[in-house]
User: Fold these one by one.
Assistant:
Number 1:
Amino acid sequence: MASGPSPYAFPLKVDDYASTPVPSMEEWEILWKAWDLVTAQMIPADALMEQPIPLRNPLKFYVGHIPTFEDIHLARATGTPLTEPASYARFFERGIDPDVDDPRQCHDHSELPTIWPELSEMLEYRENVKRRITLQYDTGRAYSDRSIGRALWIGYEHEGLHLETFLYMAVLSPNIKAPPDIPRPDFAGMARDAASRRVENQWFRIPEQELTIGYEDPESDDGPDRYFAWDNEREPYDIRTSAFEAQARPVSVGEYAAFLIDTGKTDEIPAMWVKLNTCDGETDGVPRGHDVEDTALQAFIAQHGHRTVWGPIPLSQAVDWPATASWNEMTSYSEWKGGGVRFPTLHEVRSIHEHAAQLNEGQLLSTTTTTTSPSHSNPANPSKNKDMHTDPESIFVDLGGANVGLQNFHPVPVTHRGGRLCGLGELGGAWEWTSTVFAPQPQFKPMDIYPVYSEDGLDGREAYWVVVCEAMDVVARASAAAEWAAERHVLLDTAFENMLQQFDNET
Ligand SMILES: [Fe+2]
């Protein structure tokens, strides 16, 4: 029982979100509407200098960063000067992504202005850049000049990714405001409904598979009009994954709370949780006949809340949501589970998603641990990503029904999904951690137009791939390719088989 879709929902069908390599003007309009909402209406202007994540720039930086990044790439592609004030390219070109353990270790980044521009000036600059983008479509150059098309593509995906990260930071702020035109969801009702639909989180056997990771993009303007790729999405390479078992769905908030109680780590709550200033807490929605029968657990849940853009809600109303936690937190959870349980590698996540897609297509019968799957059944075309990808269906997937792309501004329950293997985008609104260290893919080559994109994730620091889609997650176009991005972690969440996520993407 979700409350969506919201008036800010991004399209989820391939034909609607990736019909051409260059995002359409309509896609820009949807993105701008969402960006204006979160930066201008969901955070008060006088709170923009907050740093909800202390290792990040103030929120106001991103108000300048988004149009500046787009303008730099359009100026390069068109061979024309930067939009004024050109000094924005010095202040807002690149954010920061310091080492979590040693913040002194930080890649090259823009120097913040000593005196920040007035917000009105920054918003006027953004409008000027938006007009520059619109002009590319009015003149037809967006589609006739592939260099300009690539600049528009990277600017679009960059803004979408930052929409996600801005929201993640903003929801940590005490000054977050809900979207003014979206009614507060009935969280208590959703919780009661979710509690009544819980099923056992089954184990599924994932067969040995041959898969292709990434897709082809020589970053050439010759040849057919084909899809673009970030440096960490290319070039395609083949893998063979061994058979393994995976649980159907991510770890839930309630399960993570039980872990904290059992290990005595009750003061180590995830960043998305808050301790409520109440002695008895809110118990409405606390499911009975489940793990919360335990008195200590029930008391703990009653004393905590889960952050939302509507402010904290009782944790009892979120126990069926996916748990979002940092990589270290989820590693501890896995160790506590014992029995060799861990979260999956990047390739294993791809294998899970591929197998889930096959099951959903009815190509295989139900395969719990009690049944046998073909040892290397992979009906998908293993070479599909190696061609010049002019066909969006070859690299993007329909995400209908997934809680992504601002269908909602909150996670949705996952505990009813225990009988069916969750695939891409089916984690209730969370990204998915992997245990694979972020490192160059085979044939890795920095992007000609943005050579530093993956650079700071490849400097030997501890960083892990995260499979995107979910959370409040924004851009279906970027999310759709399971192998898409690699984020470095910093705060977030995960769950287990299928552990979830958080991410962070400071490009
Ligand atoms: Fe960025």
Note: DSSP finds 13 helices and nine strands in the chain.
Number 2:
Amino acid sequence: MVSSHDFIEDKRNLNIKIYVNGKFYKRKDAKISVFDSSTMLGDGIWDSIRYHNNKFIFLKEHVDRLFKDAKLIDLKIHLNRKKITEILEKTVKINNIKTDGHLRIIISRGIKSTPYQSPKVTISKPTIIIIPEFKKPDKRAYKKGLKLVTVNTIRGPENVQNPQINSLSKLNCILACIEAQKKGADEALMFDINDNIATNNSTHFFYIKNNCVFTSTGKYCVTGITRQKIIDICKAHKIKVFQKNFKLKDVLNADEAFVTGTFAGIVPVNKINNKKFKINDNNLTYKLSNFYLDLINK
Ligand SMILES: Cc1ncc(COP(=O)(O)O)c(C=O)c1O
């Protein structure tokens, strides 16, 4: 099995320095309280950002998303964008990351006085954690492609748990992921509440039909940065791209399909349920992937 998150093992990850609330710690010493909102309730937000060829990829977009998500859950980050950027840069420097860095930033609402959900019992500033890793995608996933399967777990409506937020509580995605893995697939293809195809459990979904690129409206997906870049690339190269509602039958009738994410960029799909897709260098997926690589290598 492959996944959109398969990576090359890197021994340097044993010695990374992890940022927790203003200080850097060795892996074994990086700890937070059991009373933290994250451990107790999954109350917080996160983002992942890549550091490639001595620079962050789409830094502004990632910091913007972090602050947008914080606002949507009414979490006031006590540091401003500039300070958060400085901490990210410091984390890269202290860990001597030059390329293939993958940084997970986690912000929880902070420490609680007692195990209770109300933000009123929060007695500290938000907890900020940055886990930097040396993480290079495993190329085999690009050649082989992913197997997707539709699952029963759906993307919920905005007024249940807003699916556009990169929240710490990923239970919806995790349950979809478990379902997919039990069915022998690499990733779950998820419906929205109206039986349209929305997204995958950890990446976004696109399909291609007659050289036109389709993805969902985005209403039931995490606000995707890579997703948006692919849409922009299509527009820049005069490739027709549509953000619209579509059904499983449209997907099963497609010529190609692929997934996108910060970690692996574009990964082709080789199978959805019982439908197989051919993966080759003449595919539009491959061309889009090269355009995306050009963009991040710029
Ligand atoms: C459910 C889900 N979809 C998609 C993505 C990918 O989004 P992006 O393109 O910003 O990496 C993520 C990762 O954050 C995710 O958790």
Note: The pocket of pyridoxal-5'-phosphate is lined by residues 166, 173, 199, 201-204, 221-222, 224-227, 260-262 (CB under 6 Å).
